[in-house]
Amino acid sequence: MIVLGSRRVTDDRGFLLGSVARKVLAGNTRSVLVVKNLLPSTPHVVLATAGSPRAHSAVCFLRKWPLPEGAHLAVLSVVPPVLDELAAAVLPLAKLRHLAKPATERTKRLVAQTRESFLGQDTAVSADVLDGRPGPVILQYLEKVKADLVVMGSRGLSGEERFVLGSVAEDVVQHAPCSALIVKR
Length: 185
Prior knowledge:
Blueprint: E1 2-5, H1 12-17, H2 20-26, E2 32-35, E3 44-48, H3 53-64, E4 72-79, H4 85-90, H5 93-118, E5 124-131, H6 134-145, E6 149-153, H7 159-165, H8 168-175, E7 179-183
Parallel strand pairs: 1-2, 3-4, 3-6, 4-5, 6-7
Antiparallel strand pairs: 2-7
C-alpha cells in the first residue's frame, strides 16, 4: 500500500495540473491511502462497494484491517441510472422504476451480505443503497454522515477509458472531505 498526504487541490487548476495523489492513484497497481485528516479514536468509515472484483477486494481488505472498538462502518452502494437523461425525461417514473428494479434488488442483496460479513467485530454496521451517479452520490453521502474515511475498490481504468468514462475512485479521492483508501488488488 502507498500512503500519502493530500494538499486538497480541488479547483480547476488542480484538475488540469493533477495532484500528486491523483497521479499516484492512476499510475500504479498498489492500493493507495490518501490521508486528509487524522482518524479519531472512533472513526466513521464508509465502505463504498459495487460488487465488482475490485470492490470485493476492498471488502476483504477492510475485514482484515482491525477497526477500533466503537468505530462505525457504513456499507454503501449506489445504483447508477439504467437509462440516459433523455430517456429518463421521456419515460414515466413507474417504467423507470420497473427497469431499475433488478439492479436495485441485486444491490440490496450485495449490501446486506456485505453488512452481515462485518457483524460481530465490535463495530456498529449500517447499510445504505442509493440511486444516482456513483461519484456525486458517494461524495454527498460522505458529507452527510461526516465520514472520517472512505474505502472503495478501483476499476483500474487507464488511458482513453479514464478520460472518457472518468474514475469514481479518482473523483472521490479528489473531492472527499475525508481520507480515502482505494484498494486495487
